[in-house]
Amino acid sequence: MGISETYTRGRELAVERPFVLVVAAVLALLGFDVVRQLATPGGLSTARLATYLWDGLVVGLSIGLAGVGLSMTYSILNFANFGHGDYVTSGAFAGWAVTWLFAGAGQFDLSTLLFIGSLSTTDLGVSILSTPLAIVVGLVVAAAAAIVLSLAIDRVVYRPMRDQEGIALLIASIGVALALRYTIYIVFGQRTRGLTDAQSVPELALPVGGGQTLAIGGHEVTLVVVAATLMLGVHLLLQTTKLGKAMRAMADNEDLARVTGIPTERVVRFTWIIGGGLAGAGGFLIALERGAMNFQFGWVLLLLIFAAVILGGIGSIYGAMFGGVTMGLAQNLSLVWIPSEFSTVAAFGVMIFVLLFKPEGLFSGVTTA
Amino acid sequence: MSGEADHREPAERSAEAAGDGADAAAGDAVADDAATGAVRAADAALPEESLLRVRDLDAGYGDLQILTSVDMDVGDGEYVTIVGPNGAGKSTVMKSVFGLTTYMGGTVEFDGETIHGRSPDEIIHEGIGYVPQNENVFESLTVRENLEMGAYILDEVPEDQIEWVYERFPILRERSDQRAGTMSGGQRQMLAMGRALMLDPDLLLLDEPSAGLAPDLVQEMFDRIDRINDDGTAVLMVEQNAKQALRRCDRGYVLVNGENAYVDTGDALLADEQVRKDFLGG
Question: Tell me, what's the ipTM?
Fold first, then answer.
């Protein structure tokens, strides 16, 4: 192991995998600049940097959680489900209607609560600390509603087209997306509504050194904890249970799964159950963290979800998680250098940059399903 | 041609087959002979009782018919090979037995039960295992997970059966946590067989098990199939390595243009001049 050998290996790396070198160089440069800015008096404070990182993680996990379902349905049913964003919205609306009902029953008009209508969110006072039960029940209902919805839509729309090409299914899913979105619009209206009582949300102050603190919202913590738990759950399901292994097997090779005796329709059903459940739970948590939602927030989010899923390698659930967090961090860390109006540009810039060098996405071919 | 009628006059038909065989020249002519005589040569070699019994089977894909009136028998514990030129429908016979083609007529019976028209996941319950030619392992799953999938229809993972497979294919034990996609062609073939053996089937269908293997591995693969057969599992195999396969099997079928052409013991087919000339490269 001499210098020349090291040199040769380095040269091979540079020739065969220039991507790794470019990324390393860019990251090193940015990292160096962050250190420089931190060291500059009056420059970037550690508290601000910590806030960016934390916000990036929160946004990233919420995108990732919604993305897991999208990636699963892609890998097992072989189509990009454009209705996924509206499963997110539907779950959120169902969940929040129930949360409001739980929190405000007796004090407010039932139909106002059920249709998440106009009332003072301060008076209703929904938050994870003041009305934890209502939030938990709402979360469960959000997941359950999205599951029922995705199973019903599969039965009515996708199952009769099971043998069709991915493009036909994709177009059908756009129709499903529109139908869902405007059903919500008709039932709940187009108003962006506040959901939680911002005043009663507890905040945690974490010391980050230099006498500075990072303020962490209770709803952000809820999102991070629940999202991380659910993702861990999906991981364990896929790796250790018979059903999870069958899902991976079917994503890998559907024909072989069939001749092996794996009941493929049952696996499809469970894929919708898990994917739909995560979409609904994700929608509820995103609305909880933001404290507000409207009838098309899932649809707007879908672009970011797709970006994250493609970045991670479509079809890989680990790619969806990783892609989501990458997008979230890129969006927020970019604030160190550029104004916030451009942060989404930065996130998509990172995606395009990665795809230029690894068009199949980061995790594709490494871990499917 | 009726399979029933064939059974009655083996001696006469053998003679007929010999006569026809001498005259036949081109492949098409051989196929025609099949209908009239050559196939009867083997009646003496037919198993007394068939585990798998295919009669007058017509099958194909969608509207396209591939098999015409195919007869085939596999006795309990028998080792049967199907050979023939490319496009003769060899794999289609196997897929038809396993319910993967469009059924168009005739009967397929297994262990006395009619199985034609049933789906693979039903047929697998009857005790038939199938190893496809290509993409026959789950690449992103580990070796052990592939074996577990082979026993999906059971309520619990049959540890003793995994152990049984490991004993026959020790390399799989060594690689049990490795992803199947990272293994060599020969190892994948072993894994594919191991997966199909997880339910301890009475009949194993093998579609070109030696395809794409290096020559020394081909020998090893055939040895392993012998062992599986020695353990009592009947084998129905399609093979490109026709001579090798016929040398080892109990009985062989020659299929041409989706029809039976010859059937006899492996050795008899190897000795048959016409078969050698037309199908075995002289």
Answer: 0.81
